[in-house]
């Protein structure tokens, strides 16, 4: 049987690495995985996980989603000359009071999470259209559906990708009749145990950059950091749990547009839909994080 060709971005750690390992190890041997990462010096971790047993199901390629040429070069190295499933997973975080974020930091997050994802899709889209089939999965975030305090630019990038994917899904369902192709799925994650927090650009409380920030904002930020650390300690999912949701989307004959990794819509997201003026959501979020703060 012809293998399904899967190309995944951001496989040096976290969700991308786990997904690459899982698909390349699938006992059915139905997948050929192109695990891409921007820095091949980091490939040992992935190789350690597959223990050299996957010569026929795994290739590791260099790809930086902010560098169009590297995306084109990776595409040209796909031996099968087609990608059946594209997983846009690479992403970075940025946290802190908005007034201390440098233009470079903000630009970097938007370049990786937004433009990087979009230009990766662009490069593979025409091939999928030409071959008459394909599926694009994006690692989304609850921060792409509702705002998270002190994550303005990260959320902006993830909201924007949700919008772009909704549009692509709308036009692809119109095209499906003709082309039998293209499903876009957003796999919406809450907190996940990965290298995300290590790689996150975060303003630390002692940073000199925070000296310009007013005391009230700083105290809210401190509270938010405590909240984050509790949430990651108590409620973060393992990457293997996220991979199971990807597998649902990959195996489904008619995948949904959005999959929540906790299987139910998070209550805060629901509030945005049921209370469209937005104020109930704002109040609920403030209460959860800053409950005993003098508002
Ligand atoms: N962890 C969470 O709590 C969480 C929650 C919701 C959504 N997500 C999303 O899940 C996705 C994967 O994150 P993760 O949790 O697995 O974190 P992670 O372990 O930090 O993985 C992020 C991956 O993206 C790669 N990357 C960063 N910039 C890149 C670029 N310019 N080109 C190519 N790859 C690049 C990183 O490579 P390097 O090693 O080279 O930096 C790394 O392989 C992200 O899109 C993130 O926004 C994560």
TrEMBL record:
<keyword id="KW-0443">Lipid metabolism</keyword>
<feature type="binding site">
    <location>
        <begin position="10"/>
        <end position="38"/>
    </location>
    <ligand>
        <name>NADP(+)</name>
    </ligand>
</feature>
<feature type="binding site">
    <location>
        <position position="158"/>
    </location>
    <ligand>
        <name>NADP(+)</name>
    </ligand>
</feature>
<dbReference type="GO" id="GO:0006703">
    <property type="term" value="P:estrogen biosynthetic process"/>
</dbReference>
<dbReference type="InterPro" id="IPR011348">
    <property type="entry name" value="17beta_DH"/>
</dbReference>
<dbReference type="GO" id="GO:0004303">
    <property type="term" value="F:estradiol 17-beta-dehydrogenase [NAD(P)+] activity"/>
</dbReference>
<comment type="similarity">
    <text>Belongs to the short-chain dehydrogenases/reductases (SDR) family.</text>
</comment>
<protein>
    <recommendedName>
        <fullName>Estradiol 17-beta-dehydrogenase</fullName>
        <ecNumber>1.1.1.62</ecNumber>
    </recommendedName>
</protein>
<dbReference type="GO" id="GO:0005829">
    <property type="term" value="C:cytosol"/>
</dbReference>
<feature type="binding site">
    <location>
        <position position="141"/>
    </location>
    <ligand>
        <name>substrate</name>
    </ligand>
</feature>
<comment type="function">
    <text>Favors the reduction of estrogens and androgens. Uses preferentially NADH.</text>
</comment>
<keyword id="KW-0963">Cytoplasm</keyword>
<keyword id="KW-0560">Oxidoreductase</keyword>
<feature type="binding site">
    <location>
        <position position="64"/>
    </location>
    <ligand>
        <name>NADP(+)</name>
    </ligand>
</feature>
<dbReference type="Pfam" id="PF00106">
    <property type="entry name" value="adh_short"/>
</dbReference>
<dbReference type="InterPro" id="IPR002347">
    <property type="entry name" value="SDR_fam"/>
</dbReference>
<comment type="pathway">
    <text>Steroid biosynthesis; estrogen biosynthesis.</text>
</comment>
<dbReference type="InterPro" id="IPR036291">
    <property type="entry name" value="NAD(P)-bd_dom_sf"/>
</dbReference>
<feature type="active site" description="Proton acceptor">
    <location>
        <position position="154"/>
    </location>
</feature>
